[in-house]
Automatic annotation (TrEMBL):
This is S1 family peptidase. SMART domains: Tryp_SPc. Keywords: Disulfide bond, Hydrolase, Protease, Serine protease, Signal. InterPro entries: Peptidase_S1, Peptidase_S1_PA, Peptidase_S1_PA_chymotrypsin, Peptidase_S1A, Trypsin_dom, TRYPSIN_HIS, TRYPSIN_SER. It comes from Chelatococcus sambhunathii. Gene3D superfamilies: Trypsin-like serine proteases. The keyword Ribosomal protein does not apply. The keyword Protease applies. Residues 1-24 form the signal peptide. It comes from the Bacteria.
């Protein structure tokens, strides 16, 4: 299983850095209103001018880890080549997007290779596909940060679920922005401070869900970074970055985001 997963990571998974379209959860079920993950998960929208009178819009999911910090996937920012506007949208107790707060700064994981990984893939660093965004103002009082698991590898062994706010219907661009949840069975396939887990989700992961949190009863242990796909943009097989909040690189990323990048 491990060697097969390494080949998948080195090949198919790198495709995540080749498209500006993020990933999203199609299927699963609506997140329960008012629960801790509805209060912690956010919907991220980035706007990047692409030509005269035109702009590129990208969506991702993220999770509140401090009142002014959101953890998401690194390629959500790097694929957009320097977005001019990024905002975080929060869900109310009815699971609807209400409050919007601009992102004032962000920091990528120091080991994230970005587009360079296409030409020189390093599977041992793919779990560094992470970023922390600093909000221009604290999250609404109805929102609540979620604690990171102190031992993500052990947390991943427990029954887990993932959350996404991307396209609910793959072909319907207007179906994003509803927080959904699906069970996922995960197996750690690389180890170290930038570990990766491979899992099968109870729903299709498509456009809009990169950066979505993966949690078990032990806390937040993973972030969605890629799906196994070739022709269509959806699949239930998903790769997740396994979080190591005690690693120097992770702490460095969080500290730089707090300082404003």
């Amino acid at each position: 299983m491990a060697s097969k997963a390494w080949r998948l990571i080195a090949g198919i998974c790198v495709m995540a850095a080749m498209t500006s379209q993020a990933l999203a959860l199609s299927g699963g079920s609506p997140a329960r209103t008012g629960d801790r993950m509805t209060r912690a998960t956010v919907f991220i929208t980035a706007l990047t001018p692409s030509s005269r009178n035109r702009a590129q819009i990208g969506n991702c999911t993220g999770v509140l880890i401090e009142r002014q910090l959101v953890l998401t996937a690194g390629h959500c920012l790097s694929d957009l080549a320097g977005p001019s506007l990024v905002v975080a949208q929060f869900f109310d107790r009815s699971n609807r997007v209400t409050r919007t707060i601009p992102v004032s700064a962000g920091a990528l994981h120091p080991d994230y290779a970005g587009r360079a990984s296409i030409d020189n893939p390093r599977p041992e660093l793919l779990g560094a596909d992470l970023a922390v965004l600093k909000l221009a103002a604290p999250a609404p009082e109805t929102s609540e940060p979620i604690a990171l698991a102190r031992d993500a590898v052990e947390a991943a062994k427990a029954r887990s679920v993932l959350f996404g706010a991307g396209l609910r219907v793959p072909a319907d661009e207007g179906s994003s922005g509803q927080l959904r949840v699906a069970r996922v069975s995960a197996e750690i396939v690389t180890k170290g401070p930038t570990a990766v887990a491979l899992g099968a989700a109870g729903g299709s992961v498509c456009r809009g869900d990169s950066g979505g949190p993966v949690v078990s009863s032990n806390g937040l242990w993973g972030i969605i970074i890629a799906i196994v796909r070739r022709k269509n943009l959806c699949n239930s097989t998903v790769f997740m970055a396994v979080l190591d909040p005690d690693s120097r690189s992770f702490r460095n990323m969080v500290s730089r985001a707090r300082r404003g990048g």
